[in-house]
Amino acid sequence: MAAPPDRPRPRLLLLNASLAGDAGNTAVLLARARRLLARSSTVDVLTLAGNSASFAELRPRLSAAHGFLIGTGTHWDSWSSVLQEFLEDATPAEGTALWLGKPAACVVSEHSTGGKGVLSRLQGVLVTLGCILPPMSGLVLSRAAVLAARHTPDPAAARDFWCTDDLRIVCHNLTQAARIGISGTTARAPRWRAWPVDRTDFAARWLDAAG
Ligand SMILES: Cc1cc2nc3c(=O)[nH]c(=O)nc-3n(C[C@H](O)[C@H](O)[C@H](O)COP(=O)(O)O)c2cc1C
Question: Are 24 and 56 in contact (CB under 8 A)?
């Protein structure tokens, strides 16, 4: 059945830039994202680790996409070396139709720290290449937050941490943004969503003298 004209079906590329490829933590996040996105988009998945294709060979798949979801782990406060290599190889395409105006969402996994810096810098690079950032489209999932949510005696205290459920918002907002870029359609105004935000307790003191 054809997609309704006000809700066109975008083509999205999931770029798995994890060092561990399909066996990594990032791959688990991207597999979940793929299931969410497949409801309203046509999804292609490209795993960089172990992929010997040149940028020129990958280019048609990137060009065909209306938007991107990029996943990486955190490695010494940086993104993976495979992502760095990819970005270096992509440099000649900076500011071209391959990127220009296409929305890019990012998921970063980490053990405990550094991932937000990776996310912010990666978003900066993507905008420089020519992409746009949908609202609430960047997520850092840390092992520390997963453990805290699983084991805390005070679940409310962990509610403000990023969690895998927030992927729903990332995927929803990416799809909304990608629809805008499909030419020849009458996509309706995007309906952005926000993940849960702590608006009451964010300034609370959480450290006591006993540590
Ligand atoms: C070489 C190396 C360096 C890492 N550096 C960091 C780091 O700086 N901060 C952090 O929180 N986690 C760090 N980690 C943990 C990874 O970011 C984490 O396990 C992530 O989920 C890996 O993603 P992947 O399984 O998709 O490769 C490091 C892991 C490796 C192997």
Answer: no
Spatial CA neighbour of 41 closest among 72, 21, 14: 14
Atom of ligand 1 minimally distant from the CA of 73: 23
Class of domain 11-180: alpha beta
Distance between CA 205 and CA 165 in Å, rounded? 26
Per-residue pLDDT tens over the stretch 113-130: 999 999 999 999 999 999
Q: Is 45 exposed, middle or buried (0-12, 13-18, 19+ CB in 10 A)?
A: middle
Helix boundaries (H) for the chain: 25-37, 55-64, 81-90, 115-129, 143-151, 167-180
Residue of 176, 196, 197, 200 lying closest to 188 (CA atoms): 176
**Digit-coded pLDDT (tens) for 131-150:** 999 999 999 999 999 999 99
pTM of the model: 0.95
Per-residue burial over 60-86, b = 16 or more CB atoms within 10 Å of its CB, e = otherwise: eebeebbbbbbbbbbbeebbbebbeeb
Mutate-to-test residue for ligand 1 from 22, 72, 79, 111, highest number of ligand atoms within 8 A of CB = 111
Q: What's the rounded Cα separation, in Å, for the pair 180 and 194? A: 19
Ligand 1 binding site (Cβ under 6 Å of any ligand atom):
18-20, 24-26, 73-77, 109-115
Closest among 89, 9, 102 to 63, alpha carbons compared: 102
